[in-house]
Specification:
Number of strands: 55
Oligomer: single chain
Radius of gyration: 30 Å
Strand order of the largest sheet: 12-15-27-30-33-36-39-42-45-48-51-54-55
Distance between the termini: 95 Å
Mean pLDDT: 76
Low-confidence stretches: 87-93, 167-291
Number of helices: 12
Length: 722
């Protein structure tokens, strides 16, 4: 077929089709007409227009039009940024309706981020918050680059799906998602106004609809008519919703995207289809979402930044709270936040009572009850009768009076009549999330959370959040997660959690002081390393002081790859695993702690103090009593020695001095220095690990420490409160 050049007459044959395409992109009739005209001018004005066969004409026209649209969007954004940067004085506050939209958008995004499970959440934070590339993350975590990229892909995919499931059916089409740059801290654009196109940018997630129905944890819904242009000041948004100057701003349209800045697969623009059946991640139908004291979230939203929100006394708030501005949140006497709702509508069926309401499907729900259909099991759901938890059993068991189960429709099945009792069922993942600097939370009792990972979360990159004098209990997963910098967690009580009680996640400088942490890790066998009292991961320069950590299933305190952590003046006792463990750390001190009766339930029994694959740590002036093993310093135990293994590179320059070790039995081992990852200790320990002036009781023939007298032993034991 003979080729031909495009003329003005040829273009006129496609003008109606091209105008429809432009209208889909711009959502504005005048802008669409201008874009079509610019397309004609661009084609006809070329010095050497391409020769095209007629069957390729529409594909060529579409490509030119989309490219012009992308260029126009980028030009507008850059111009508005330049204009904004030249404006003197404080930025103009957004209109009230726009501020409300911003709050709703932040809530949706934060809820979905906090639901990510490990290891996806940590990998995502390292990638986008710390700004590390895949190779650097792989080296830090000891993984392959392919594994890191895959984890980030899965994390981003889960965020897309969960955001999609919370939109209305009329908007369940292809929604473009930009790279998730929202985890980057705002630097160059701090204080500069940002302008968005017709799309609402949820920290990188672009929603192209003009009217979007949002579902919140408390069950409330809002429909917002969006103007063609939204202009918000960066000072009105949390830092994580602003991006660096070199990041992309994405405009509305079914396929509009700029080129990603990297070749990582997690940076590529994706298009996905929304599920036609949204899961019950909010409130179940008919849930109790009101409080006689009003909505705590409404009080927070109405408060001015930097102000104090004081709740009335004895109020119980059954809603998930999100704080996106600096303020102080103080509870009145007896005020509570609960992740449960009161259920009273049950129908008797034989010897059981079945609820009319259904329990939500929680993200990353453990499969324990599917694996154990005929006995006690653990799941994210919880049921409380008159404030006491009922035991969960598999779906093939007829529950007894102190038990419950869920049927195939996720209805609660009780083994005794609920009449005359208060029944509460967990319907929310957690209690409260923070995504702002300089926030204070004090005086609350928070209980009944279905979260697998945390009930209260400080979301990156928050700084200087104070959590004081609160009481956290009955979280299905972990209770509190602190990520970010310079947080203060003081004088709180955490108890009865399924996973660890407190998690220090990627960040730095948290102060954990004067807390009591007990009965954590109840969903795992005693001695589990993964679950226990305090879990520190990639959080350098933390200070953990004057806490009492006891009767947890796992370790009292586990520090993984967090350098220069200070653990001082703590009481740790009756934990299923060891008292304190440093794994893969550099530096740090363990001083003046009192630990007793830990690690006896673990298999094999565990020491009071682990220093594993750690360099430059100091342990001094501690008293460790009644442990099967006192102190272990050496590499991670494996079944074989890796080729070229160097014990001085793995575990070196640790200094243990002036510690007291009181054995439970004469056969217990006080101190072990090992250079071998196996049990046989063929490889000698690195000579740079030093032992000085340590004391032990009873004395052994091969003692590595000074012998204590019986009188001295009793005097040291008297220092440990029971």
């Amino acid at each position: 077929m003979q080729s031909q050049r495009l003329s003005n007459e040829d273009l006129q044959h496609h003008v109606r089709w091209l105008r429809r395409l432009a209208l889909d992109l711009t959502r504005n009739q005048h802008a669409a007409d201008d874009l079509v005209q610019d397309t004609f001018v661009a084609i006809l004005g070329q010095r050497s227009p391409p020769e095209l066969v007629p069957t390729n004409t529409r594909a060529y026209l579409a490509g030119v039009l989309r490219n012009l649209y992308r260029m126009a969007v980028r030009t507008d954004v850059r111009r508005e940024r330049r204009e904004a940067s030249s404006v003197e004085g404080a930025p103009v506050a957004p209109a009230p309706d726009q501020a409300d939209e911003g709050q709703w958008a932040r809530r949706i995004l934060l809820e979905e981020v906090e639901r990510l499970s490990e290891p996806f959440r940590t990998t995502l934070l390292l990638r986008y918050y710390d700004g590390l590339k895949s190779q650097e993350i792989a080296q830090r975590l000891g993984l392959t680059e392919a594994t890191v990229r895959k984890r980030n892909q899965l994390a981003l995919s889960r965020l897309r799906q969960r955001v999609g499931k919370r939109t209305e059916p009329q908007w369940r089409g292809a929604i473009p998602l930009a790279p998730l740059r929202w985890l980057w801290p705002a630097r160059k654009l701090a204080g500069a106004p940002l302008a968005f196109g017709t799309a609402l940018v949820l920290g990188g997630l672009v929603v192209t609809s003009y009217s979007l129905r949002l579902s919140f944890p408390a069950g409330a819904k809002a429909s917002v008519e969006r103007p063609s242009t939204l202009a918000w000041s960066a000072s009105q948004l949390p830092a994580f919703l602003t991006s660096e100057a070199d990041s992309h701003t994405w405009a509305a349209g079914p396929t509009v995207a700029a080129s990603p800045t990297e070749n990582d697969s997690d940076q590529v623009l994706k298009t996905f289809s929304l599920d036609a059946n949204p899961s019950l991640e909010g409130e179940p139908p008919g849930a109790d979402t009101t409080s006689p004291c009003g909505s705590l979230q409404s009080m927070i939203d109405a408060a001015a930044p930097g102000s104090t929100v004081q709740t009335p006394a004895r109020c119980i708030y059954r809603e998930k709270i999100i704080v996106t501005k600096p303020l102080r949140l103080i509870a009145g006497a007896g005020a509570e936040i609960r992740g449960s709702d009161q259920w009273s509508d049950f129908v008797q069926r034989g010897s059981t009572w079945v609820s009319r309401q259904a329990v939500p499907v929680f993200p990353d729900e453990p499969r324990d009850c599917d694996k154990r259909p005929s006995g006690p099991c653990h799941a994210s759901d919880q049921v409380f009768r008159d404030g006491h938890p009922l035991e969960r059993v598999g779906h093939k068991v007829i529950p007894r009076s102190h038990q419950y189960t869920l049927n195939e429709h996720r209805q609660v099945v009780l083994g005794s009549s609920p009449r005359g009792h208060q029944l509460e069922v967990t319907t929310r993942l957690g209690w409260l999330s923070v995504a702002a600097h300089d926030v204070g939370i004090s005086g609350f009792k928070m209980q009944h959370a279905a979260s697998r990972d945390y009930g209260l979360a400080i979301v990156n990159p928050s700084q200087r959040v104070s959590v004081h004098n609160n009481h956290f209990r009955h979280a299905a997963g972990a209770a509190v997660s602190l990520a970010g910098e310079s947080h203060s967690f003081e004088n709180n009580v955490i108890e009865h959690t399924g996973f660890e009680a407190l998690r220090l996640e990627p960040g730095a400088g948290a102060h954990v002081v004067g807390n009591e942490i007990r009965y954590a890790g109840l969903r795992h066998p005693p001695g589990s390393w993964q679950r226990g009292g305090i879990f520190v991961v990639l959080h350098p320069n933390a200070k953990i002081m004057r806490n009492r950590v006891h009767h947890n299933q796992g370790m009292g305190l586990l520090n993984i790859r967090s350098p220069n952590v200070i653990v001082s003046d703590n009481f740790l006792h009756n934990n299923g695993g060891g008292a304190i463990a440093y794994i893969g750390c550099q530096g740090g001190t363990v001083t003046n702690n009192r630990a007793w009766s830990n690690g006896q339930q673990a298999v094999p029994p565990e020491p009071a103090l682990f220093l594993i694959s750690t360099t430059g740590a100091e342990a001094a002036d501690n008293v460790f009593a009644h442990h099967p093993f006192g102190i272990y310093v050496g590499p991670t135990r494996r079944n074989h020695v890796p080729a070229g293994f160097d014990p001085c590179h793995d575990t070196a320059n640790n200094f243990l001095h002036d510690n007291v070790i009181i054995a439970h039995a004469a056969s217990d081992r006080p101190i072990a220095l090992s250079g071998d990852p196996r049990e046989d200790n063929v490889i000698a320990a690195c000579a740079s690990n030093r032992l000085e002036r340590n004391k032990q009781w009873p004395a052994l023939s091969n003692a590595q420490a000074v012998s204590l007298s019986a009188f001295e032993k009793d005097a040291y034991l008297a220092q440990m409160p029971h």
